[in-house]
Amino acid sequence: MSLLLALAMTAAAPACAPDALGTARTLTLPRTASAWGTAQHAALPGLARGEIVLTFDDGPRPGSTPRVLQALADQCVKATFFVNGEPLRQHADLARQVRDAGHTLGMHGHRHDNFAQLPAEAQGSDLKAMLAAYVDVLGERPAAWRFPFLAESPVMMAALASLGVTVMSVDAGAEDWLPAQTPQMLATKLLGQLAKSGGGIVLLHDAQDQTADALPFLLQTLKAEGYRVVHLRWE
Predict the structure, then answer these.
(1) Which residues, if any, are the signal sequence (predicted)?
(2) 149-167 per-position pLDDT tens digit
């Protein structure tokens, strides 16, 4: 790339607003059979108190994911999206838009089933379908997985370990799957949980309209409370 082209691309890139939450830094993890998140496992190593990793589940969904992406872009924030296989195939262009915006993607089950309640064969079939959808749509090997409902199973934990896939649980959330919640209600819940955990992995859902509606306010609130966003990558 020529120097003039590089300068032109830099000039064209939108600058973050002075009051944007921003992304403080990127934390790169190895592709190993690890499990993080104090709801079920150890705390994610390398995070300081007050640092958070924003994660979103259940997408991509055309009605809400684009608004989540816009809110993140407005605040110069990078996040991790745990996608389901069925909507991933149905809305492949939107999934690639998430990736191309600089966010990280992981797996969340092909059909969003409760793996702890499935026969072993069905668990394996779902994982196979999820892996195929991820590779077909995104053209790369997945590095991370979050269980739907956080319902871990020994069968799946062993299968993911054999693939060197990291399991991501959570440290804090807003319970944004519950209906009829205002932005203030979601912010109050999230701040309450973060006060207990001191930071860590935050669980939200980009497939929820109320989350997309509330996200600008949530990000502004996190900024006002002094939280710093860390973006996850895998080697």
Answers:
(1) 1-17
(2) 999 999 999 999 999 999 9
